[in-house]
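User: Fold both of these, please.

Assistant: Here is the first one.
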Amino acid sequence: MSSGKTVALSKYAQHKYGIAAQSLVDFEVGVNCGCALLAIAGADGQLAEAEFQWYIDEQEMVAVDSEAFQEYIEILRKFDWKNANLEELLSQIKFNFPLNFRYSLLYQAIKMSRADGFYHEKEKAAVAKAAEILGVDSTVVVSLESVAEMEDTADRLRIALFETKA
């Protein structure tokens, strides 16, 4: 049952994910997505600060800041990802706008899991399990992993070309 709370999406969400700016995400759906991602990225036994921070940074760009958004972030900070039921979380995710949330969620899980510089075998297994639960073929997962790797490589190349000392 929905509380009626929503989080509005930004222009960045339109640019990055193809979702119309100002689309509304049901609060509980967003929480379930975020919690599922925390469980996947923590599958190696730790949720690295870099992984969590990647997700927070991404959400700060994707969502319009609001009281509901701040509450969402606070719930994620307190979530017990070690004892999460991934199947239960994933079964409660349904968006009311056009988005292949299954692919998008797996993409974010991969990006988040790689954010600490290492995509652990247990994280890969958790992504594969999530894909199975969501009915996504393993070839799509390989493609999403490749996209994430290409993006990371392109980012490093761009920064190197700009001679940034980051």
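And the second sequence with its predicted structure:
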Amino acid sequence: MPAQRIVLRKAEAGDLPGLLELYRALNPSDPALTVDEANTAFSAMLRQPGLTVFLAMDGENPVATATLQIVPNLTRAARPYAFIENVVTLETRRGLGYGRAVVRHAVEAAFAANCYKVMLLTGRERPEVHAFYENCGFVQNKTGFQIRQD
């Protein structure tokens, strides 16, 4: 873990270049977006109710991210549920606590919004990726991960 406290915050419009760098590290084979495509998609994300992109910062630079989507619900006493998606830490910052901090921050935000569970799926099959999510508090359930507040 870095000596200084990890700064966590919501992404803003000016964070798009750093966020795109993180997403390239997550999915290097994805086709590059044009500037217009990226701006349009990110603007829509920032306006989407219940969707928050969280960043872990190293100084002025985002080095890890996780996206939280809170979904309204009619079951479980009308408590919402949440998904975490697009979790990535720059390779040079892995193992320093940034990824864990941003995932835990997203979970805390979901529980603060009264979500009864937070779900996360990964297509990664590497044991260290599964161990990372388990160390963040998730429980592997069949082919996915979930965490319940109650």
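The first helix runs from residue 16 to 26.
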